[in-house]
Amino acid sequence: MDIVDRATRSRMMSGIRGRDTKIELVVRKALHARGLRYRLHNRMLPGRPDMAFSGAKAVIFMNGCFWHGHDCPFFRLPASNTEFWQAKIEANRVRDVRSLEALHALGWRTAVVWECSIRNRPMEGFVDLLDQLEEWIRKGSGNLDLRGPLSDVLSANPVRKEI
Fold first, then answer.
1. Distance (Å, whole) CA 86 – CA 77
2. What span, in angstroms and rounded, lies between the C-alpha atoms of 40 and 135?
3. Pair 125, 163: CB distance under 8 Å
4. How far is CA 115 from CA 31, 53, 63, 84, in A?
5. How do strand 109-114 and strand 144-147 relate by DSSP bridges?
6. What are the angstrom distances between the C-alpha of 43 and each of 21, 46, 127?
7. 3-state SS string over 57-94?
8. Helix axes 123-138, 22-33, angle to 10 degrees
9. Nearest to 49 by CA among 15, 57, 40, 114
10. Does residue 132 contact residue 124 with C-beta atoms inside 8 Å?
11. How far is Cα 101 from Cα 150, in angstroms, rounded to an integer?
12. Residue 113: enclosing H or E segment and its boundaries?
């Protein structure tokens, strides 16, 4: 059972943004200030990445830990309507994997920046993350998975970088 009425829940959920989130805007603005130019939410690419750097053939996804079911302290399955949320988050995870695989098959490099890699981070840590992203976009190879310091480090993902 929900703790708020249906109208209040609807209003709360309608305020959750799928794009142009605070974290996404901060990273976009900072990378733009470093001279990097990109396309937003390119519909021609699988998964409509948050940022696409055509010249470098690189894309960035900015994933919220809750919505993408990340294995970090910011993800907690809601206590109410658990079956619905499990199915929704699992579908998001499957779609994420499918999108990344499709982009790799097309020759694109991918970076996933998790909310926990930015949230509650001191400015020095954020600058380090931006340095890493800029270097990867300009000169890097392979793919990145940038996670926060509190994330589970026992993943089978070989491209993960904890910062």
1. 7
2. 20
3. yes
4. 17, 21, 6, 23
5. parallel
6. 18, 7, 29
7. CEEEEEECCCCCCCCCCCCCCCCCCHHHHHHHHHHHHH
8. 60
9. 40
10. no
11. 26
12. strand 109-114
| Verdict on whether the full-model pTM lies above 0.85 | no
Please count the other Cβ atoms lying within 10 Å of the Cβ belonging to residue 126.
Answer: 16
pLDDT in tens, 115-139: 888 887 788 888 999 999 999 999 9
Comparing CA positions, the residue from 38, 62, 58 lying closest to residue 50 is 62
Q: Encode pLDDT of 15-51 as tens digits.
A: 666 677 888 998 999 999 999 999 999 999 999 999 9
Give the tokens for residue 126. 């954020």
Contact yes or no for 128/163 (Cβ under 8 A):
yes
Radius of gyration of the chain measured on its C-alpha atoms: 16
What DSSP element (H or E) covers 17? Answer: none
Report d(CA 59, CA 49) in Å as an integer: 6
CA separation for the pair 120, 125 (Å, rounded): 10
Can you read off the two tokens belonging to residue 134? 């800029």
